[in-house]
Amino acid sequence: MRKTKTNIIIADATPLFRIGIKRTLEDCDWIRIVGEAVDGEQTIKKTSRLHPDILILSDDIPIFHSREILHQLYLMHSTTRVLLIGTTKRSERRAAFRLGAYGYLPRYADPAELMGAVTRIAHGERVIIDDEVPQPTAPHKSQEPLSIRELEVLKCITQGMSNQAIAEELFISEKTVKNHLTRIFRKMNVTDRTQAALTAIKQNWIILE
Question: Same structural domain for residues 70 and 152?
Fold first, then answer.
């Protein structure tokens, strides 16, 4: 018999989908839903603050891609186990597992499959989709995690935006953009925006839409 509850955060942009997951899990006496998130920024903030045992994460959540969230949680040394739910291609699922995901379920999975996946992950098991999905391996690790704002600036860089365009997009000054760039380069151990963009894309830290 469990002595402690398994704390869970549900991250998906669709209210009905979050409600459906919550109703599936909340009747289980060893599960406690401690939070919900509607986008990637909320997901990172709430996971870092609440330290849930499991994060149920939609793979198409807005603002930050699910793989960007996985990478950021890794840099934060988070012990949260991530269960991805979505309709991604097999290659994208493999990438998610390499970045530390514990499980994957298709969006059309039934409640019993969801409950089974959560139970297995709570026991430390990984929900492997098929034999072609590799066991997770640690991604490239930066010396220091990027902040949410720095991630936003980095994403703008990978889209080829100038400092002025980034400032307008994020409603900050160009001086603030330059300060963020300085910190990003230092944390990533690169010397310019081109190296930062290439590294971010190569390591799947930033996903180009």
Answer: no
Report the alpha-carbon distance of residue 21 to residue 33 in Å, rounded.
Answer: 10
Say if residues 82 and 127 touch (Cβ distance below 8 Å): no
156-159 CB contacts, 8 Å cutoff, 24+ apart = 157/181, 157/184, 157/193, 157/196, 157/197, 157/200, 158/197, 158/200, 158/201, 158/206, 158/208, 159/208
Does 89 share its domain with 159? Answer: no
Let me know if residue 103 belongs to a domain. yes
Tokens of 65: 């891609």
Global confidence as pTM: 0.68
Residue-level pLDDT at 51: 95
Domain membership of residue 192 as a residue range: 148-202
What are the structure tokens assigned to 133, written together? Answer: 């999905």
Q: Which helix (H) or strand (E) holds 190?
A: none
User: Ranked by mean pLDDT, which of 49-63, 87-101, 193-207 comes out on top?
Assistant: 49-63
Cα 27 to Cα 160: distance, rounded to the nearest angstrom: 48
Q: Which of 5-14, 125-134, 160-169 has the lowest mean pLDDT?
A: 125-134
